[in-house]
Amino acid sequence: MGDGDAEAALPQRLNSRQRRREQQQEQQHQEQEVQEAGSHEAGEAGAAQAASTSGRHEGAHGLGEGSPGAAPCGAGTGPAPDGSDRDASLRPGLQPEGEPGGPTAGLEVEPVSTLEPLPEYRSAAVGNYQFEYLDHTADVQLHAWGSDLARAFEQCGLALFNYMSPLEHVRPLETRTYRAEGHDLASLLFGFLDELLFEFNTELFLAAEVRITRFDRQAFVIEAEGRGERFDRARHEVGTEVKAITYSAMSISEQEGDAEVFVIVDI
């Protein structure tokens, strides 16, 4: 190439270099804009996260116990703007009104258990007798009643015999007499039952019927008779041995047309 051709090609080479330089600058400028845009978006995301974290911290610390406007322990974020309870589904057994398909739908609620009612008064009477047995720690309590104290004492004597051997198997074949004394009604009842128990322990005599023939409230004397038979293991059912009569929690009460006694016996 001659000098004239070289001089003619020089402006073209300069223009080509300039264009490449401009293209490179434009490309670098575009890349910088992309980087700046990414940095701006990341900054906005970080700011939002920081604001959210700050809000949670404020709810945990700024609205803690003793702070004005503090929510009760375990409470959610409160009602939603539309008035509904957004946390109802998070609390067991609660369901937002108007939502039949809530978390408790179809579940059966167990009834609240209550204490068993006490048995009806005098409801555990044995057969046609007027006595019953009440549970007591390591012992048993005889509860007997009648139209007056004499009848209640008679029924208490039958309760004593029946506990040692059911009277349904005892025949009234023999007659025995009893006498007891005391200084008040409690000691008189104790002496009467103790006399019946002594007769059984020494003679094995079971009375199917007991009748008081004398009930002296002034001298505190009882005279009675019993009809029954001697205990026979082949015929009579073995009940529970009564070791002694006690004064523990003994109770005697009487009103017009009704009387009752409570006696604990040692077994």
UniProtKB/TrEMBL annotation:
Gene3D superfamilies for this protein: Archease domain (3.55.10.10)
A GO BP annotation: tRNA splicing, via endonucleolytic cleavage and ligation
Give the keywords, sorted: Calcium, Metal-binding, tRNA processing
Q: Region Disordered: which residues?
A: 1-109
Where composition is biased (Low complexity), the residues are 44-54, 68-82
Q: Name one Pfam family in it.
A: Archease
Q: Which GO terms describe its cellular component?
A: tRNA-splicing ligase complex
Q: Which residues form the Archease domain?
A: 131-267
Any idea which GO molecular function terms this record carries? metal ion binding
Q: Where is the composition biased (Basic and acidic residues)?
A: 21-43
Q: List the PANTHER family.
A: ARCHEASE (PTHR12682), PROTEIN ARCHEASE (PTHR12682:SF11)
Q: Which family does it belong to?
A: Belongs to the archease family.
Q: Identify this protein by name.
A: Archease domain-containing protein
- What organism does the record attribute this protein to? Chlamydomonas schloesseri
* Lineage of source species: Eukaryota, Viridiplantae, Chlorophyta, core chlorophytes, Chlorophyceae
